[in-house]
Q: What sequence folds into this?
């Protein structure tokens, strides 16, 4: 087997391991900070998400949905999809498999992870899960084009769809701080909460309203894999944001660059936690108005980027 192929496979396994190991830790940080900000209490241990996942994995796999086979398929496919995306994204190390895919594949994987959630909710068949599924579909239709537009602007600036070019501060490649890059920085920062399903945009799950929506009929190992996949998605979106908009420090020696990368990711996650702790959930109609505004502004940024701005 070619050495480059072996290196890509090993690098992909390293990225998957990093994502699986770090994702629950960041969930623990989220819980701890939220407890301090909202309730002025100590909060759960940082390792509590690991304990929760292991506990759920050890429970009986009760299947109460209308289509158990599709529920199992959607669960496994969701986790596989987000881990495949992790192989294409730099997680403090150079992306190991960027040569095996491009911007189109990354957009496909991110979108497909949302489709898996739709399949899971539809297969459950309960009223609450169907409501959550419809909301998730509306959010995908409004949000995924914004993410695609961001990558398209990076591709315009670099003249390439290759991930190693686009995921390296490509929004600023026209020199200095171009208008299109700054606009998309603001848009993606405002939309970040929606991408990771945090308040005020956790509308499809909305525990106090529709009791976790698409996931209401899930328990045990399948619920553990859903929660794990959602935790990994937070890491992937944060890593993509850092790679696109805050690339400085990547050229430093590896240990320093690795630490700087995760400090930036942690800062973004803490900002997300602060916003979730200080804002109330939006209604679906309010959220869609925000998304429509973001999309219109993003399309304007594409026009600016095409003219070198």
A:
């Amino acid at each position: 087997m070619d050495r480059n192929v072996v290196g890509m496979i090993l690098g992909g396994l390293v990225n998957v391991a990093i994502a699986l190991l770090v994702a629950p830790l960041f969930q623990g940080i989220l819980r701890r900070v939220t407890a301090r900000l909202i309730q002025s209490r100590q909060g759960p241990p940082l390792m509590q998400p690991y304990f929760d996942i292991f506990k759920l994995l050890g429970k009986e796999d009760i299947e109460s949905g209308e289509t158990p086979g599709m529920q199992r398929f959607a669960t496994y496919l969701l986790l596989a999809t987000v881990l495949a995306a992790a192989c294409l994204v730099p997680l403090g190390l150079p992306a190991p498999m960027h040569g095996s895919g491009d911007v189109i594949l990354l957009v496909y994987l991110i979108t497909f992870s949302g489709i898996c959630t739709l399949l899971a909710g539809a297969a459950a068949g309960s009223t609450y899960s169907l409501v959550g599924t419809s909301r998730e579909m509306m959010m995908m239709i409004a949000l995924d084009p914004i993410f695609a537009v961001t990558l398209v602007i990076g591709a315009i600036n670099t003249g390439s769809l290759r991930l190693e070019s686009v995921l390296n501060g490509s929004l600023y490649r026209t020199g200095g701080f171009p208008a299109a890059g700054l606009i998309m920085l603001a848009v993606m920062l405002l939309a970040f909460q929606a991408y990771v399903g945090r308040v005020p945009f956790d509308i499809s799950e909305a525990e106090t309203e529709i009791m976790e929506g698409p996931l209401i009929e899930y328990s045990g190992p399948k619920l553990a894999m859903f929660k794990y996949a959602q935790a990994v998605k937070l890491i992937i979106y944060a890593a993509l944001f850092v790679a696109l908009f805050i690339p400085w420090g990547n050229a430093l020696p590896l240990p320093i660059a690795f630490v700087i990368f995760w400090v930036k990711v942690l800062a973004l996650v803490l900002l997300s936690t602060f916003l979730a702790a200080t804002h109330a959930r939006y209604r679906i109609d309010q959220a869609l108005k925000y998304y429509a505004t973001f999309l219109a502004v993003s399309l304007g940024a594409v026009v600016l980027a095409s003219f070198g701005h």
